[in-house]
Design a protein that fits this description.
Number of helices: 0
Structural class: mainly beta
Radius of gyration: 13 Å
Largest sheet: 6 strands, mixed
Helix content: under 10%
Order of helices and strands: EEEEEEEEEE
């Protein structure tokens, strides 16, 4: 069965950092663009970042640009999201998902993980 598992979430103070991991099992991530999405209570799920399956191009939502960095290690079948300078507004459940191209749109994605909670609070 194809699965994605996110990890690395937790409680962090404003200005802190976390690194999220998205590990695939049952398939190879090499053939997919991988997007990170998040959903806060009462809000729509939104695209955060994406890394292309082809040339490794990266894309970021304006809200995280300059603070978050997405990367992939195909040998480990893993995609990472390094989150720096975290703000309370970053609090959400973070999900990774496969896509065929980096559109950062939920409607175009295929496989999803269960999510990992990120809480930024003093």
């Amino acid at each position: 069965q194809r699965q994605l598992v996110e990890s690395g979430g937790g409680l962090v103070q404003p200005g802190g950092s976390l690194r999220l991991s998205c590990v695939a099992s049952g398939f190879t991530l090499d053939y997919y663009a991988i997007g990170w999405f998040r959903q806060a209570p009462g809000k729509e799920r939104e695209g955060v970042s994406c890394i292309s399956e082809s040339d490794g191009s990266t894309y970021y939502a304006d809200s995280v640009k300059g603070r978050f960095t997405i990367s992939r290690d195909n040998a480990k079948n893993t995609v990472y999201l390094q989150m720096n300078s975290l703000k309370p507004e970053d609090t959400a459940v973070y999900y990774c998902a496969t896509d065929f191209e980096c559109l950062l749109e939920v409607t175009t994605t295929q496989y999803w993980g269960q999510g990992t909670q990120v809480t930024v609070s003093s």
